Amino acid sequence: MPETAITNEQAFEMFASQNRKHYCDDEWRAIERHLRLVVKAAGTQRRHVALNGESAIDIARKATSRALDAAGKTAEDIDLIVYSSIARGWLEPCMAIAIQKEIGASNATCFDVLDACASWLRAAHVVHGMLQSGAYENVLLVSLECGMFDYVRFDLPDADAARRYAAALTLGEAATATVLSRSNSDDFFFLFKTFADDYELCLLPLDNAHMYAPGLRDTGLSVRKFTADTKNIVSRTVGHIVDTFKTTDRLHGGSYDICFSHAASMMASHLVANELNLPDTAYYPTHADYGNTASASVPLAMSLAIERDQVARGDKVLMIVGSAGITVGFATFTF
Q1: What is the distance between the alpha carbons of residues 43 and 38, in angstroms, rounded to a whole number?
Q2: What is the separation of C-alpha 165 from the centre of its chain, rounded to a whole number of angstroms?
Q3: 316-323 and 258-261: which strand pairing?
Q4: Within a 10 A sphere around the Cβ of 114, how many other Cβ atoms?
Q5: 149 pLDDT exceeds 90?
Q6: pTM of this structure
Q7: How far apart are CA 227 and CA 8, in angstroms?
Q8: How distant is the alpha carbon of residue 249 from its chain centre?
């Protein structure tokens, strides 16, 4: 995690410092009330952010070093690096190359997998197939959701902008690294579904977004700024997760000891857990202390559970992600 942890009050002050002077008291109180409601509904208490000279690549290097040590591997043992994150410093070449150079993985080749908050689980699915086919032996999967505050729009000229961009208040930063190796034992099950009609509910658009979706030209979206229609994206994504789970025998017919999920909000996690009849003891939330860490949410939760001895060998694991797109994804396996 980045060293700096920001409380809700500190986050509110960041927004206030950019906006307070542009409003009369009543106008600002209305906007601040909306910001506070968003954070309260999400259940966010604090989030870690890379500040004070701390760089994303430094945080990734620390996570990667811990993962390699835990797996008993060296950088030279890795023959494939997959970068599975939203955050990035460039569009080309692949971001995985920055990881390769930083750790000195001279025997590795690299590519990226980008599927919003489902990126890590989607990459795990891709890598699983490659490992089982014998194409690679040891793969390093890196999720680096840092530098995200550069994608936050802090200036809010009106209440509509506050509604569009307030979800950025819940974002947190983290780096995770996962070493995956080929095994003779394999009980993994993966399932993904995408519902494209609602992709505009959660966006981080580039300058030329209108060339790919002409309807976005007149919506007033700020380029390179994270926007989300929180109410609709949560309700529709939760609905798709529940429907997909309940109509898939391999999922709803299982018994699970622990569940790791994309921690978009505490509210979304509780809704999913209740609808799927998962006991509180099985669901492992991270949002309150770390915020919405996007694609890093699932591996972050697993890492914390391992560190705290809250998952044991032989436990049946369920993973759930709900992502912009809307994409929902699941994985089950024995830890």
Answers
A1: 9
A2: 17
A3: parallel
A4: 16
A5: no
A6: 0.94
A7: 19
A8: 27
